[in-house]
């Protein structure tokens, strides 16, 4: 258990370093990159993007402004509630500029997983799903108190 927890800690630290290097390469900051990543699952309201990113609604306005300026997102008024702003990833522009930065990483990751059976990959995916749940719960707990 100690070895696994240590490996998770190290992987998390390297993930942060990778995000910083990638953001520098793309020409944006790490918070902007984090928000782009959150938008890959579909459009979000500005307030939901702020909540998921762990930033204030005032800060998310700056993020959206910067990302819109470089063509990575589009903002529109919500068709049901015009007070809300919906932010949508501009997939083509992101694929052109952002995806190439991560392509070598994805290829290396795929290569590292080649020796595992389908059952082992399912086990690893299940573990990562549980890890995500723990992160979500603990981040929420930290923010609440």
Q: Largest sheet, described in full? A: 3 strands, antiparallel
Q: What CATH architecture do you see?
A: Orthogonal Bundle
Number of strands: 3
Mean pLDDT: 93
Query: What structural class results from the helix and strand content?
Result: mainly alpha
Shape: globular
Per DSSP, the total helix count is 7
Q: Radius of gyration over alpha carbons?
A: 17 Å
* Uncertain stretches of 5 or more adjacent residues: none
CATH superfamily label:
Winged helix-like DNA-binding domain superfamily/Winged helix DNA-binding domain
CATH class: Mainly Alpha
Number of folding domains? 1
Major sheet: order of its strands? 1-3-2
Strand content: 5-15%
How helical, in percent, are the residues? over 70%
Report the end-to-end length measured between terminal Cα atoms.
Answer: 28 Å
Written overview of the protein:
Helices cover 72% and strands 8% of the residues. The chain is mainly alpha-helical and 145 residues long. It has one domain: Arc Repressor Mutant, subunit A. A hairpin with a 7-residue loop joins β2 (73-77) and β3 (85-89). α1 crosses α2. The mean pLDDT is 93. Residues 1-133 form the HTH marR-type domain. Pfam families: MarR (PF01047).
